[in-house]
Amino acid sequence: MILKLRQGMARDESGFTLVELLVVMLILGLLAAIAIPAFFNQRNKAKDADAKSSVRTAETAMETFATDNNGKYTGVAVADLTTIEPTLNNAGTNLTLPAAATDNTYTVQVKSTSPNGNLFQISRAANGTTSLRCGTGAGVPPTGPGKDGCPTSGDWGS
Questions:
Q1: What CATH number is associated with residue 24?
Q2: What pTM value is reported for the model?
Q3: Cα distance between residue 19 and residue 29, in whole Å
C-alpha cells in the first residue's frame, strides 16, 4: 500500500528542470543589467537638475541685485547673491562668477556635483539677451562638450 502511494506520488510530482531555472536566471540577469545603470544615472540627472535650478536662482538674484543698484550689476559678489537668495548657500563653492560683471552684463555658473562635472552657465549680454551654456571646462562659455546633462550643442536652455 505504501509502495503504491509512493509510486503514485513520484509519477504526479513535477518541478522545474535545470534548463528552465537557467532561462529564468538569464532573464533576471538581463533585466538587472538594464535597470541598474539606468537607476544610477537618475542620481546624476538629479544633481545636474539641481545645478540648473541653482544657476537659474542665481540669475534671479542678479536681477534683484541690479534692481537695488540702479539697474547695474557692477560690484556683485557671490556673497551678495547668497544674501539675496539664501538657498544659494546650498550650492556652496560650486556657484561662481567667472567673469566680472559690468553695468549691464554678467555671468553666473554652477558646477554640478555629479561625476560628469558639468558647468551650467547663464550670461547676460549688453543688449539684454541671455545665453545658457553647458560644458565641462572652465571658461566663458564653458569649454568642451558637455556630458549626459548637456546637449551636444551646449545650449541647455532650449
A1: 3.30.700
A2: 0.72
A3: 15
